[in-house]
């Protein structure tokens, strides 16, 4: 594996400190803000229709997360998303709980239809639901899909003309043509709320400084997963793991990423 | 004390991983999500009227918490609560700050009137206000009530035909006929925001797998309190206590609960 | 430096445990609640127009923070602020992100116009924008202002007839006539989201028990900064720093404040 594209991007992120505008849920929003900082970005959260577009106009990327969706938020997502599209900055969509309710499924489809999404990042169940295959989402948890996640992700990416990331023991990142698999991470990441949301924020930071979403998302997921591996080694349970996860991502060096990233082609 | 009913329930919870739907405040919502995970459940938060009922339709219990109430949330609570009642899943109501403002007091009464609440869990002041005795709530803190909390809780439970839990140095759980007192816990639990909300979430997890709310709530409060005792032993202040509280609840074993639960009849 | 006014106030805060009503953002609200507890106050968050004024009617101070502003919140801020003014309790305004969007800038000006604000606390960029000098705010971060912050803060305080606090490596607190500089703090405070919001909450706690906003804000910022210094000494990264920051503020003694406060006149 050549790690140079990933470490170069990571170095650029830390140098530029891109502003990542979030319209996200109120459950994990603080974690998203702090993980953005630890990854090397600057977070801002602004979801009022009165200012969503204006904030997107000064940001380097936009993260849309539907974890606690409301009608007002959808309006703001559309306004901010259009501004992001106009300016050509990346838009990351995390369709939290798509498949669990019609409101979430329909909103995800609407956002994919009305906006140019750069990266769609979800768990296997969410991605399966959006791809139209049989899949089960209970609350915000994936209970899997019928079929091969890689094939489904590739198909969805091709159909939509976007990059798709599927989180899991092995993360899949694909634009239909180019695919990367990321094997970093630790099972303890599933023991706390919000690691999926945080992963989306970290991809928002990395995509802000890259023209290649597949590379950027893979680098982001590798860095975040690597921090999780290091955190697991020093924690006694979910919350001490969470504490260490932030610390380790902040302290992660280019050398750590070069030595520890496990990114490969299928 | 026979601990078998409590440890059996705890084992069932961990095996089934019940989905607990929350409509709750934005102050402690992340803590509620994470403590649900640590207790053995799966949290989901969804408070838009567009999806509240649909999410309740796939959940195993519903937790309503009025800590940062809004008109839209009340509508969602009614919609989700009706669905929960239709399906026969437990509904837990945490009347945070009832008595501090009319909006909270009136909403609590409305929810108790329009929905079949399984468990009403509050501090002494809140329960006193709802019972109609002289009681003082300042912000979200109880400043006590006039009269014997146990007698008042029993009376309220009988009148409403529900289970009532009163948090305190000794927690009271009663349906009017059967009463259990839980003596687990630690004073440091009062040093952080949200332990009351978290306790309600844990009762939501345990009630999801039980037909006996008094037993379930007592088991939940004992487990949570026991985690607090263990956490206090290794903490240096409120936030390291909070960290340990989550870790200890996650790591709590059936043996720990059997050995450490202090549940008794009055 | 005579520390008695600061330690006397700190002792009074801990004895009285003032109720601090917050109308604040959903990103750092949990941190604001917990830091209020650690400083010696009791937090309450209530932002529904139905109850905002009633909650302000029982509080000892009011903190308004526009970090994730909405139209409904502005209405509640006005209602709660008027009640606070009527009752003569201090109102603290944290104009998070003023200058980044018109919505935030205009709302800040409206609140300053319609309410009697006791203390306006912002970073240099935000204060510069409000003072009408050239200043840059990117998201919620200050990118500085053109001119001398001290002169600008004094001018703004005089014009508005209020106390102004400017956070930075050296914090400035001034009512135009009396000025105090606070040199406590640590660079790690910038590594986590919400230290600015938390600082505003701590000033809310101290102002609640004082008739002298300059003294109260300086004491609050010194205590908070001192906790940051102590936390930095025992942390391994941003989140372990955050954990220690809460613990250290809670554990801070009058002796610590007397020995460690670095408050001086210009």
Identify the CATH class of chain A.
Answer: Alpha Beta
The name of the CATH topology of chain A is: UDP-N-acetylmuramoyl-L-alanine:D-glutamate ligase
CATH architecture of chain A: 3-Layer(aba) Sandwich
Report the sheet-strand fraction of chain A: 15-25%
Principal-axis shape of chain A equals: globular
The whole-number mean of residue pLDDT values of chain A reads 97
> End-to-end span of chain A in angstroms?
12 Å
Q: Which oligomeric form is depicted?
A: homotrimer
Main sheet makeup of chain A = 9 strands, mixed
- Helix amount of chain A: 40-55%
| Number of distinct beta strands of chain A | 11
CATH superfamily annotation of chain A: Ribokinase
Within the largest sheet of chain A, what's the order of strands? Answer: 2-1-3-4-5-8-9-10-11
Largest interface by residue count? A-B, 32 and 32 residues
Number of helices of chain A: 11
Low-confidence stretches of chain A: none
Structural class of chain A: alpha/beta
Radius of gyration of chain A: 17 Å
Account of the protein in words:
The structure is a homotrimer of 266-residue chains. Helix content of chain A is 50%, strand content 18%. Chain A is globular and about 40 Å long. Chain A contains 11 helices and 11 strands. Chain A has a single domain (4-264), classed as UDP-N-acetylmuramoyl-L-alanine:D-glutamate ligase (3-Layer(aba) Sandwich). In chain A, helix 8 (195-207) packs across helix 9 (213-232). Chain A starts with a helix and ends with a strand. Chain A is an alpha/beta fold. The longest helix of chain A is centred in the last third of the chain and has 20 residues, at 213-232. A 9-stranded mixed β-sheet of chain A has the order 2-1-3-4-5-8-9-10-11, sandwiched between helices. Chain A has a two-stranded antiparallel ribbon with strand order 6-7. In chain A, a hairpin with a 3-residue loop joins strand 8 (163-167) and strand 9 (171-174). Chain A binds chain B through residues 25-28, 30-31, 67-71, 97, 100-104, 138-141, 191-194, 235-240, 243, and chain B through 19, 21, 26, 29-30, 33-34, 37-38, 42-48, 50-51, 54-55, 58-59, 72, 242-248, 250-251.
